[in-house]
């Protein structure tokens, strides 16, 4: 099966700095890679996703890059704000009707 | 429109009791997933429905876990004879699917189960 590893497990940055979270996956058949933000006691919320036919996707301050050859993908948050503080999960999937395999999460703290 | 809803939000059970957790997916969503999230961990897959058909139950940890979606909308996850190791947040997710552009999964708020 698929194995998704996520690093770092905790990350603290100063407000305005950038944050980068990295994930690797093992199954070359995985083709869909979403990122979720989960605040304490809340549901996971999709913040950005990427499919294997593109290498990068950006949405305002958030971007995701994918390297299929190396089987890794990364989340980049620029100009961080205190409200970005949360746990972020990466996931990998083989697409339609297939389960998501999640990483173990990164607890991001943005220091004002 | 309304998102995925789950009930109850919190459930405390004594060891050995049976529990039933409900998920109301987004209206019209074909696919429904159940995940288990232990404290400090990422969600782990339990089972998947496409309409009323349970197509994958490979993640169910034991035969004490049972899920159904009889009419292709609301789903119930049942845990019989609960054990302390069943304590976790149970998340439900739905997606419009099945097609490549509609497989994004939207999560409910979860049910936090505590087994004493």
Oligomer state equals heterodimer
Task: Describe the sheet with the most strands of chain B.
Answer: 7 strands, mixed
Give the radius of gyration of chain B: 13 Å
The description of the largest β-sheet of chain A is: 6 strands, mixed
**Quantity of strands of chain A, as a count:** 11
Query: Distance between the terminal alpha carbons of chain B, to the nearest Å?
Result: 37 Å
The helix/strand class of chain B is: mainly beta
Total helical elements of chain B: 0
Residue stretches of chain A low in confidence (pLDDT < 50, at least 5 long) are: none
Biggest chain pair contact, residues each? A-B, 26 and 30 residues
Strand content of chain B: over 45%
- Distance between the ends of chain A: 41 Å
Overall 3D shape of chain B: globular
Mean model confidence by pLDDT of chain A: 94
Element order of chain A: H for helix, E for strand: EEEEEEEEEEE
Judged by helices, strands and strand pairing, the structural class of chain A is: mainly beta
Describe this entry's structure for a reader:
The complex is a heterodimer of chains A (112) and B (116). Chain A has 112 residues and is an all-beta fold. The mean pLDDT of chain A is 94. In chain A, a hairpin with an 8-residue loop joins strand 9 and strand 10. Chain A has strands at 4-7, 10-14, 19-25, 32-38, 45-51, 56-59, 62-67, 72-77, 86-92, 101-102, 106-111. In chain A, the strands form 2 sheets. In chain A, strands 2, 4, 5, 9, 10 and 11 form a 6-stranded mixed β-sheet that branches. Chain A has a 5-stranded antiparallel β-sheet with strand order 1-3-8-7-6, with no helix packed on it. The termini of chain A are far apart. Helices cover 0% and strands 54% of the residues of chain A. Chain A has no helices and 11 strands. Chain B has 116 residues and is mainly beta. Helices cover 0% and strands 47% of the residues of chain B. In chain B, strands 2, 4, 5, 6, 9, 10 and 11 form a 7-stranded mixed β-sheet that branches. In chain B, strands 1-3-8-7 form a 4-stranded antiparallel β-sheet, with no helix packed on it. Chain B starts with a strand and ends with a strand. The interface between A and B is medium-sized, with 26 and 30 residues.
